[in-house]
Structure formats: structure tokens, C-alpha cells
Amino acid sequence: MPTYDAIVIGAGAVGENVADRAVQGGLSTVIVEAELVGGECSYWACMPSKVLLRSAAVLETARALPGAAEAITGSLDVAAVLERRTSFTHDWKDDSQVEWLEGANIDLVRGHAVFTGPRTLRVTASDGTVTELEARHSVAVVTGSVPLLPETPGLAEAQPWTSREATSARSIPASLAIIGGGVVAAEMATAYTSLGARVTLISRGSLLSKQEPFAGEAVTDALRKAGADVRLGTSVDRVSPAGGESPAAHTLHLSDGTTVTAEKILVATGRTPRTGDLGLEALGLGLEAGGWLKTDDSLRVLSGDGSPIDWLYAAGDVTGRALLTHQGKYQARIAGDAMAARALGKPVDTAPWGVHSATADHAAVPQVTFTSPEVASVGLTAHEAEQRGIRTRVIDYDLAGVAGASVHSDGYAGTARAIVDEDRHVLVGVTFVGSDVGELLHSATIAVAGEVTIERLWHAVPSYPTISEVWLRLLETYGRPVAE
């Protein structure tokens, strides 16, 4: 039986980072993957989705800029957009990712892994070949998540798309009904509207409800202006064949009594952890089949009684901590370092903001939603801060009043919000809504994660004329500190 210091189950972006840090820490490491090395982000999520969105975003900005607008003589080239998307996924081949593993001294075993005991696995390849693996020190579960499909009557028979089909489509349907109101729903509604589909978005609540309310409102207004039909506060009761001259189309019957007919249906109603077929429940550690893997801040999996399992780690979506690739990679670096440190008997720093503590998961999670307008946020919303009992002051500023925004494009519209902890004089949350605001976010992330005081932020001078000047405007709105 091949034996390694560490085994990583899942070779997506997060798993690659766990394995890389473990190897750098001195552990012999093997990674197990049942699909493509590089995972969801590389082939069906982050990268292809953003490529699908980018061309239309550039075109929209150019059309809002005199001088550039006059140079535009045609419309979006859909075939070219899809071709560029496919180039980013390497046509769904993982040769370059496998080459990277080899260069990083990480062994690869292809197949589906199932636990046969503590630190032991059986990996079954697609051709039936079985490989038994054993870890001397640790195993990390980094298997990600899969779309959650509601049990709506008739939905399964309609063979709906999930995010995978939406980001890998070879052609654009004439009409697309999107069920959901989160990031995937909003981004794909933006992308497919720009690519020429007749889009209807159906959400039981408001759009982007986990963000500040003005963010979802701005995206809703923009989608409607672009031609999408956005229906909020309703849900799909059942789905039936449309009949008539379009046998491939489907009719969605909504809870408000209306109907929607579409060629394709995209379900974007959430995700569930990919843990149901790993055999975790057979380990006798109180782990639930198909459940999220709860962890401590050094990413050790917690057993049924809440105590950490010394040899078992998890990172990324499967933990339910923050379902974002960049946050999963952050957890991966911590997990891989902690695995190596414990295996080699080195000090482990699990104090808040320590080397082996994923503290940012609780206080400084950044996220960009690549809609039009973009939504960029980090930390807490005003409502979340209030729920935590933080005494706050909310500072809003209209981005149209910033010189850099007017240079960016005519008629620039957007909003910035900062949430100040009045007792500590630090920011606990920041949200930007507007064109290209994603590039503003890391400065906000540093301010929140670094707990930089308002007094010190006054000495961080934004360059002029950039949209970043909004930092000065937020501080001026808050009020300049005075010497005591």
C-alpha cells in the first residue's frame, strides 16, 4: 500500500494549495481527483464565468465614453466570447494543471476516494482500477460542493442547467429562465442577457440578499434596463413541457399565478457539500454523510462531540465557512501549514490572526459579484454588525461625486458604504457598487483585516483623480479626528 505523509482528496484550486503547502512544509503528499485537476473554479465557475461577463462589461464602459462610443460599429461577437471562454478552460483538458503538480512534487492518483479507516483510502479509477493509500499523519478533504436542486415537480424532467452547463455552453439559448437570487443567478443573468438570450430571473426574495440592500437594488435595476425580466418575491411551483411549436421549451408555473416559458432553465438556488460518498460516516467519528465538515480555525475537522480530529482536515466549500475560491485557498494555506507543523512537531499558532488560524473567515471575507454594476464587499453589512451588537455608524457616499468616477465614464453611478465600529474606531465592513469597483476592494480588505483605525486611515492618501478618492470622501463624511 503506497504510504505518504499527507493525502489530499480533491485537486481543485483549494486542494492544490493544501498539497503545495504540505509539500513546502516537508511532507510527502499525494492528491486524489475523480474529475479534472484544477476543479470547479478553473473549468465551470470563477474563470469561465468571468470571461463570459468581461467582453460585455468593456463594451458597456466604452459606450458610456464619448470618443470611444463613436468607434463602436457593431455588437458583441458572441462566438468570439465563447471561443475566448473555451481558451481559458483549455477546452476542458487538465494537461497544464497536471504538469504543475509534477513540478510541485505532488503525486496524483485519479479516481474516487472512499475512507476504509482512519488515514486509509480506497481509490477507484474510471476503468475500475483500485489503489489503496495510507497517510502517516493527515488526510485533507477538499471535495468542494455541488449545486442544490430543489424538488420542484417537473423540474428534473426538464433537465435544467446548473452553473456547470451555464458556463460551458457551446451556444446561447433563445430564452433562459434562471431560478435563484444569489451571485450565480445575478452573474449569469447579466452574462446571458448581454449574449442575446431573453432572460427571466425568478427569486423568492430580493436579489443578492446577503449584501447591503442597495447592491441588489442597483443590479435589479440594471438587469431590467438591459432587457431582463426580473421577478422578485415569487417561486416556481412546478414545471411542465411548453408544447406547441417548441417541444424543447418549458413552462414554469409561479407561486404568484403567472407563467414563464423558456428554452432552458438554470437552477442557481444554492450548493450542498460533496461529502455523501466518501465513507466518512464509517469512521465512527460522528460525521454525517453528505453534511458540511465543521472545522476549528486551523481547519481540523470537528467530530460529532465537537472535539478536533487530529489527523483529519478540510478546506474550501466543503466546510461551509465561506464558499469562495479565494477564501478556500486562504484556508488551504493555513491547513497545509498546520498539517506540516503538527506532523513535524513544530509550534502551531492558532491564536486569532495567528499563522495557523483562519480568523478572516469570521471578520474579513471579501467578495466581488461581477454583475453590471459590480458589487464588491468585505466584512459585515450594517445589519450583520447590528446583529453582533456592535455600536456602529454607517457612512454612505455617492460615487458620482468622485472625480475619478467622472473620468472613468460619463454618467457614472455607484455607492460606497463603510461600517465603523464606534468603540474601536475601525472599519468592520465596506461595500462598493459601481463599474470596476472590484479593483477597490483589496484596500478595504486590508483596512478591515488589519483593523486600521480611522485616525490612521486619514494618513493613507488616495491618488487623484481615481475612484479610490472615495476613501477620502468617506473619511470627510465621518469627520476628521481632533487631538484630545
UniProtKB/TrEMBL annotation:
It comes from the Bacteria. The keyword Transcription regulation does not apply. Residues 4-328 form the FAD/NAD(P)-binding domain. SUPFAM superfamilies: FAD/NAD(P)-binding domain, FAD/NAD-linked reductases, dimerisation (C-terminal) domain. Its cofactor is FAD. The keyword Flavoprotein applies. Residues 365-471 form the Pyridine nucleotide-disulphide oxidoreductase dimerisation domain. Its EC number is 1.-.-.-. Keywords: FAD, Flavoprotein, Oxidoreductase. GO terms for molecular function: oxidoreductase activity. Belongs to the class-I pyridine nucleotide-disulfide oxidoreductase family. This is Dihydrolipoyl dehydrogenase family protein. It comes from Gryllotalpicola reticulitermitis.
